[in-house]
User: What shape does this take?
Amino acid sequence: MFIDKMRKQDILEIAAIEEISHTIPHSTVTLAEWAAENYLSYTARNSVGEIIGYLQASYIFNSCEILNIAITPHQQKQGIGSKLMQTLINACKALQIEEIFLEVAEHNLSALQLYQKFNFIKVGERKNYYLNKVTNLRENALVMRASIF
Ligand SMILES: CC(C)(COP(=O)(O)OP(=O)(O)OC[C@H]1O[C@@H](n2cnc3c(N)ncnc32)[C@H](O)[C@@H]1OP(=O)(O)O)[C@@H](O)C(=O)NCCC(=O)NCCS
Assistant: This one.
């Protein structure tokens, strides 16, 4: 497995993973926007070069925000999300970024496990922020933050 900077031509492959891994997938237009050069966006590829996961983040001055992360379902829980997170953290350090924010649905246990591993802590809550298209129920978002040292 290896990690690369995301490119615009990766978007169709990413959109296919987005559809199967998220209950609320982002549109192809949004995914493409977040793949631009001025974002901190990465792909994880298997040994034959297929995309198996990705992370997209934006930054301004000393602050970064994770916009999207997903691993193809049959490759989850193998450390790929952690490798993408570590890549982002290393990039943030190089840019002297001091903090990372993200939003996560409060019942997304696998994402919460990943974020807690990287020392994210809850700093806020947005009530009824997400509409889950599978259950048609609204869900709170947790706002989380990690300091970069
Ligand atoms: C969230 C997600 C990106 C995690 O990626 P991943 O590659 O499975 O994560 P890792 O394998 O690096 O696991 C990170 C830690 O979380 C734990 N973890 C991951 N999924 C878990 C689960 N379902 N149950 C319990 N623990 C879990 C791992 O055990 C690991 O901890 P450890 O290193 O101490 O053992 C992945 O589950 C995913 O793509 N989910 C769907 C999309 C999504 O919800 N994205 C987040 C939106 S905010």
About this structure: DSSP finds four helices and seven strands in the chain. Residues 2-147 form a domain with the Aminopeptidase fold (CATH 3.40.630.30). The longest helix spans residues 80-94.
